[in-house]
Amino acid sequence: MPVYGRPGVLTGGKGGTQTTVGFRFVIFQYDERRLRKEYGITAAATPYWDTHMLFRMLGKIAHALAMAELGKGKFTPTLIEMILTGNPDSFNHIGGDPDADDPSNALHELGLGYQRANGKDYVVATIRLFASQKGPTYHVVVGESLESATSKFKRVLFNRFFRNARRSPAG
Length: 171
Description:
The N and C termini lie far apart (41 Å). Strands 3, 4, 5, 6 and 7 form a five-stranded antiparallel sheet that branches. Strands 1-2 form a two-stranded antiparallel sheet. Helices cover 33% and strands 24% of the residues. It is of the alpha+beta class and 171 residues long. The chain is built from five helices and seven strands; from the N terminus they run βαβααβαββββα.
């Protein structure tokens, strides 16, 4: 899977292009006989890597996550045209973390947070596909936050407390 630098909108970069800074191989293990028997799958191929489709998919995941977690009216969506038409002008809203993360116990990882850049507060989704296979981390700037500083602080504090409480053993 391709590895990208930080989203251009956070670093002052222009839209329309995103430079690949590396590539991380994700090895899938599957049972060919089971796929054929249970699902009728006899062959699969990936003839080329389509960055535009990857960015659209990451945009869809990020936008859906932000809508589910924050709700309508909490941010100004900036990815809708890219999602619907594939217009590359918003590609500078998508980037990644070139540093390799350790494998995770989860197949995929999703997170939502805030980032201040260029005098604005942005809602940023963090997406790591195939985290259990050391897949790369992607950051998607979903839009400008419309929440007050107090609301954002409460949300971040609650999520950190809640996430840590879920990880603690019961008892």
